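Appendix B. One record, verbatim.
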Amino acid sequence: MELIDIVDANGMPTGKTIEKREAHTRGTLHRGSHIWAYDDIGSVFLQRRARMKGQNPGAWDIIAGHTKAGEDPVDTAIRELYEEIGIAASKDALVSQPPRRYVYRSGVNHCDVIIFPYLLRLTIPVESCTLQREEVDAVQYVDMNELERDVSSPTPIRTYAQEPAYWQEIISTLRAI
């Protein structure tokens, strides 16, 4: 059982907690962190969600995770990087971006989350990642131009966990660096 903080519209904990699965059934507002990782040659680091995942199995995504009860979103980002792909990062390496609200509905799943995104410059080859197989099937760098074309296509090469507008926001932010 994983407890998460219930938060207000600004992403601040209310002092109450809820089990993550219940939060997704009820649509209870909570927090999560996203890591928009990139390299020096214009590529975005993507991970493919494990096929056994309940939400978006087998889809390509950014590194992400729910903020546990009592945890700060930047600590969530650091924890998820290490747990999912075996990368140890410091708080100084993460560049905070403005939080945004994300609502996802699919079947009985109703996720209402304040996302705290962070930029992370990666200089490691994908072969050096240690994947948490329950979460991640594969990782790869994808050229930003290719990613932009693919997420905008009516017939994309890859299946993505996020909406095209969110990918466009990531790409625009990374291009401005």
